[in-house]
Amino acid sequence: MRIYYQPTLLSFTTVVLLSISAAVARGGSRQLLYTRDDPITIPPYLIFENVRLERAYVALQAWKRAMISDPWNLTANWFGSRVCDYNGIVCSSSLDDPLVKTVSGIDLNHGDIAGHLPEELGLLTDIALFHVNSNRFCGTLPVGFSQLSLLFELDLSNNRFAGKFPEVVIGLPKLKYLDLRYNEFEGKLPESLFDKDLDALFLNSNRFVNKIPVNMGNSPVSVLVLASNRFEGCIPTSFGKMGKTLNEIILMDNGLQSCLPNDMGLLQNVTVLDVSYNWLVGELPKSMGQMENLEVLNVERNMLSGLIPEELCSLEKLREFKYGSNYFTGEPATL
Predict the structure, then answer these.
(1) The total number of structural domains that make up the chain
(2) Same-domain pairing of 140 and 200
(3) Domain region containing 68
(4) Alpha-carbon torsion (201, 204, 206, 208), positive or negative
(5) Planar angle of CA 75, 81, 85, nearest 5 degrees
(6) Domain annotation covers residue 167
(7) Is residue 141 located within the same domain as residue 17?
(8) pTM
(9) CA of 268: how far to CAs of 97, 187, 202, 242, 288, in Å?
């Protein structure tokens, strides 16, 4: 027999494939045995190009079974051994052996599919892209995702995922792009998220609460969007440490109550800064006049006061500045 997953590698289930010859000799079908009562079976007449595509077949069949609605019939051709021909499935040569074809990506964006993500998706150990935005998937990320060591982009946006932040993503070593926006995740953000080597992080329009972790400045992201959650308290003082990598940051529509950090000028690569619809107080730091690449600045609907720094209004690239519904004194200099 061939063992795909051993309990020491994957605790949530043990997957054992009975040998083809033994199954055929009994006149039965090849079968994957799980801890569940309804295992995925592989008909004996299906021939796969390699073991990895056979594993992908099992994962995708389990996923199709976990879908309760597919109004556009995107998975209608998800049958048979030619998994690389399935809609939304991307195949390429594996990284460790160019002669072996494997499933390297999934793109079911805008499918309006309802269902959940089964544990068997952990069998897709070669995928780099997993895109399922604009569907109706619910639940949360299965533990099986911990096996996706090559996953580079994960887009779960605009679905119905819920529960605490899916910390399984923290352990994904290659992950650079994480998009969880427009879901129903809740609770605190783990500090370990901002120690992870990400390039883009979208968490807006969920139900995250409490304070933004103090180590936010450790993150090397170029884009950070935390808008429309229920964060409160201060903007972390580590903010300025993001100056070398950060290009866009959106913190609008939360409950942030602090002053803007005095070292805002360190964010010299930032082009978009939006902290509108919070409870920020104090004055705009004069150091913001050093944000030489700033193009869009939105601080409206806060409790900011004082004079708008002339240094800020002299920024050559600033083309949009919204500051209404605050307590500023006088009018800003002509931009």
Answers:
(1) 2
(2) no
(3) 1-151
(4) positive
(5) 50
(6) no
(7) yes
(8) 0.88
(9) 43, 32, 21, 10, 9
Helices (H), the chain: 20-25, 51-65, 310-313
Tokens representing residue 284 in the block = 């705009």
User: 3-class SS at 249?
Assistant: strand
Q: Which helix (H) or strand (E) holds 33?
A: strand 30-33
Residue found by looking up tokens 């049958």 in the block:
79
Answer yes or no: do 144 and 39 share one domain: yes
* pLDDT attached to residue 330: 72
Query: What three-state secondary structure class fits 24?
Result: helix
Which percentage of the chain shows pLDDT scores above 90? 84
Q: In the structure encoding, which two tokens stand for residue 176, read together?
A: 């650079």
Question: Do 197 and 94 share a domain, yes or no?
Answer: no
The alpha carbon dihedral of 108, 109, 114, 119 has a sign of positive
Residue 108 CA from chain centroid, whole number: 15
Q: What are phi and psi of 97, to 5 degrees?
A: -155, 100
Edge-to-edge strands of the sheet including 153-155? 89-93, 101-107, 129-131, 153-155, 177-179, 200-202, 223-225, 248-250, 272-274, 296-298, 320-322
Closest by Cα among 87, 120, 81 to 105:
87
92/100 Cα distance (integer angstroms): 8
Neighbours of 287 (CB within 10 A): 19
Q: Which of 122, 151, 180 is the last residue of a domain?
A: 151
Phi-psi label, residue 112: left if phi above 0, alpha if psi -120 to 50, beta otherwise = left
Q: What is the pLDDT of residue 335?
A: 53
The radius of gyration of the chain's CA atoms, rounded to the nearest angstrom, is: 25
Q: Is the Cβ–Cβ distance between 57 and 98 less than 8 Å?
A: no
Query: How much is the pLDDT for 39?
Result: 82
Instruction: Among 151, 173, 204, identify where a domain stops.
Output: 151
CATH number at residue 97: 3.80.10.10
Report yes or no: 199 and 177 within 8 Å, Cβ to Cβ: yes
Asked if the model's pLDDT at residue 269 lies above 70, the reply is yes
Per-residue pLDDT band at 331 (split at 50, 70, 90) = low
Residue of 189, 143, 192, 184 lying closest to 165 (CA atoms): 189
Pair of tokens at residue 98: 């160019």
Do 4 and 138 lie in one domain? The reply is yes
